[in-house]
Amino acid sequence: MKRVMTIQDISCIGKCSLTVALPIISAAGIETAIVPTAVLSTHTQFKGFTFRDLTDDMEPIRDHWKKEGFIFNAIYTGYLGSERQIDIVKSYFEDFSTPGTIKIVDPAMADGGKLYVGFDEHFAREMGKLCGKADIILPNISEAALMLGEEYPGEDADEETVKALILKLAKLGSKIVVITGVTLSDGSFGFIGYNVEKNEFFKYGTEKVPHKSHGTGDIFASAFTGALVNGYSVYDSLSIAADYTAACIKNTYLDPDKVDYAVNFELELPYYISRLSKQKLG
Ligand code: PXL
Questions:
Q1: How many CA atoms lie within 13 A of 174 on its CB side?
Q2: What is this structure's pTM?
Q3: Pocket lined around ligand 1, Cβ cut-off 6 Å
Q4: Ligand 1 mean position to 211 CA, how many Å?
Q5: How far apart are CA 78 and CA 243, in angstroms?
Q6: β-bridge mates for residue 201, sequence order
Q7: pLDDT tens by residue, 45-87
Q8: I need a labelling partner for 174 at 20 to 30 A (CA). Which of 76, 113, 124, 225 fits?
Q9: Closest residue (by CA) to atom 8 of ligand 1?
Q10: Ligand 1 centre and the CA of 17: distance in Å?
Q11: What is the residue extent of each domain of the chain?
C-alpha cells in the first residue's frame, strides 16, 4: 500500500487542511500520515479562533519516524503557521526524500490578493523558498504574486499574465508549476501548468459555477495527490482533481442547507473514487 505524509493544521471546524486531506487521500486508497502543525477552533476566516501552535512537536515526530525508517510515496504540505515551520518542513524534505518521494507544496496562505490573518510579506517570500525545494507547486494567483513580490493581477488575470507568473515561479526551482483558480480564455475555470524540463505549458478548465468558498484549494491539492500517488500522470491527476473540486462546488451551490464556510466535499467522494477506478480500468 502507498503512503503519503501531509503536513498542515487541524481546523476543528472549517472543512480545510487536514480534515479534508485525511478523508480524500484515504478515499484514494492511500495510507495518510499526518503532521499537525497547529490546532485551531475554526479556520482563520472566522473571528476569534483559538490557535494552539504545535511547532515543538514537529521535530520529535520527524526524528521518531526517521528512527522507525518510514518511507513515503509523497509529502504534501499545505497551510503552515510560521516561518519556523517552513524551516522544519525543509528538514522533513531532506530526511524523507527517497528517489520515489514526490514533494508537493500548496502554499496555502492567501486568496483574493490578500494574505490570510497572521501572515506577512516576508512569510510569503519564505514560502517561495520552500516551493523551490518541491517537485510540484500549486499556488493560486494571489499566492503566486505574493511569493514573487509582484502586484496582484486580479482573479480574472488573462492566460498570458498567468503564464508570465508561472515562468517566474519556475525560477524558484520546482519541476512543475501549476497556478490554480484561473479563468481560461474560453471562459472555463481551472488551472494552467508548466513542465520546466519539457518547456511545455498545459491547461484544463471546467464549467465556472458562481460560488466561492474556502477549502477548495485544499480539496484540489488532496485529490491531486491521491490520483498522482495512484499512478496517474500529472495532467490526468490535475484534471481529476479539477473535476472533483468543481463537483464539490456545484453540489454546495445546489444545496439549500449549505454552510457558507466550506464546500460539500464529502458528498462527492463516491464520484472521486469512481474517477480513480474508471481511469485505472480504462
Ligand atoms: O484552506 C486553507 C486554510 C487552511 N488552514 C487554515 C486556514 C485556511 C484558509 O483560510 O485558515 C487555518
A1: 31
A2: 0.97
A3: 9, 11, 16-17, 40, 43-45, 79, 108, 116, 214-215, 217-218
A4: 18
A5: 20
A6: 194
A7: 999 999 999 999 999 999 999 999 999 999 999 999 999 999 9
A8: 113
A9: 43
A10: 6
A11: 3-281
